[in-house]
Design a protein that fits this description.
Length: 392
């Protein structure tokens, strides 16, 4: 195994004249509010209005202001609840709307072979997992909740470990085909809503500027429309969350790290902390990782290195890897240019992976996109030595 490196209360009877008028105002406001919903009898309301004409004018104006304010709760990318609290995404902590977080997430398998780069839509994911498939080449599992990118892809096939990780979000799994081992899971007791392009062609298309199979894409909006047709949408009761607060304990500098994933394919990943972006830029095989549509660099606010055991499935004819994401192990958290040791634990296939620091406390994660790097047994992570230490 690799080295063992978070209303106003009533004031009772006998109130003064001012209190009586305040109570009357509340009554009128209540009447207006309910009348807006068609619940107050018109005859009763008219009788009250005739007896309190002066009061009604003021109350009507107040009611209009209340209604207007209730219709404008959205602020920028986020919104506020009636209590005034900002609504945020439970996965990445970023501001969001109520509708955007009370729906089923999408879990999309995205290719990472050189022919698939640069990819589309990864920059809008809440969290991205990177893990091996065969030969050491990696693939991405991107989780989307509050964002709805127009283009996501290239979409490729799924492997068992990605199913087990996707299961933590109770999502619609978006992919094109699967390995033999993943097929057994999806056909016998599917733990997710399975949107396989080989069975559901509607939300997908081919980009003719690229060669197959590196050219299959989907629109998150069209996927969600298709989910409605299939009656797959709904509110998820529990899911993985990459949010937290606090400070790193026993932190060391982590301005740069190189990660290898082993295998025959010599793929290299370098992470470089950018203080202006407030996160880590990704360099794959020496090239800056950007979004194909926006041309902007991908920025990971948090990076979790999760050391995992792996071996080839016994009867695999394609060298498919059994990546063990169930169990426990060690790893690293990189955030804000620093790093600390972490522990991870996933009790069973239906459990949500728990990440803690070395003392068992929740991780202090920054709001924004998190990347989870599943580093296999023959992979490694090398942190760049700080400049001050090199001079010694």
């Amino acid at each position: 195994m690799p080295p063992d490196p978070l209303q106003l209360p009533d004031k009772g009877h006998g109130a003064s004249y001012k209190r009586g008028r305040a109570a009357s105002c509340r009554t009128v406001l209540y009447g207006f509010a309910r009348a807006r919903d068609g619940e107050v009898k018109s005859s009763m309301l008219m009788l009250y209005l005739k007896k309190n004409r002066g009061l009604v004018v003021l109350a009507a104006l107040a009611a209009l202001l209340i209604v207007a304010s209730c219709d404008r709760v959205t602020l920028g990318r986020g919104s506020r609840s009636h209590s005034g609290a900002t609504i945020t995404c439970p996965i990445d902590g970023l501001p969001a709307t109520k509708d955007a977080i009370h729906r089923r997430p999408l879990a999309v398998l995205i290719e990472n072979s050189p022919q698939a780069r640069p990819q589309s839509g990864l920059d809008q994911a809440c969290v991205v997992y990177e893990g091996i498939t065969e030969g050491g080449i990696t693939r991405f599992l991107a989780i989307y909740l509050h964002n709805t990118p127009e283009t996501v892809g290239p979409v490729r096939s799924v492997r068992p470990h990605f199913i087990y990780l996707a299961q933590e979000y109770d999502p619609v799994l978006v992919h094109c085909g699967q390995s033999y081992e993943a097929l057994q899971i999806l056909t016998t007791a599917p733990p997710v809503f399975d949107l396989d392009q080989l069975k559901h062609d509607a939300p997908f298309w081919r980009d003719r500027s690229r060669r197959a199979p590196h050219n299959l894409y989907a629109s998150a909006e069209e996927v969600r429309a298709y989910m409605q047709q299939q009656q797959w949408d709904g509110t998820v009761q529990r899911m993985q969350q990459f949010t937290g607060s606090g400070k790193l304990l026993n932190a060391d500098p982590a301005t740069e790290a190189k990660i290898s994933f082993g295998g025959a394919v010599k793929y290299s990943l370098k992470l470089v902390y950018d203080s202006k972006a407030g996160g880590y830029l990704r360099y794959m095989d020496g090239k800056l990782h950007v979004d194909r549509v926006t041309k902007r660099p991908l920025v990971a606010k948090n990076v979790i290195v999760q050391y995992v055991w792996n071996e080839e499935f016994a009867n695999s004819t394609h060298g498919t890897q059994d990546v063990r994401v169930v169990g426990s192990g060690a790893g690293w958290l990189m955030t804000g240019g620093q790093r600390t040791k972490v522990r991870w634990n996933k009790l069973d296939y239906g459990a949500i992976t728990k990440f803690t620091d070395d003392y068992g406390a929740p991780l202090p994660l920054r709001d924004g996109q998190t990347w989870v790097e599943l580093v296999p047994a023959d992979g490694n992570v090398i942190f760049a030595q700080p400049v001050a230490d090199r001079a010694r």
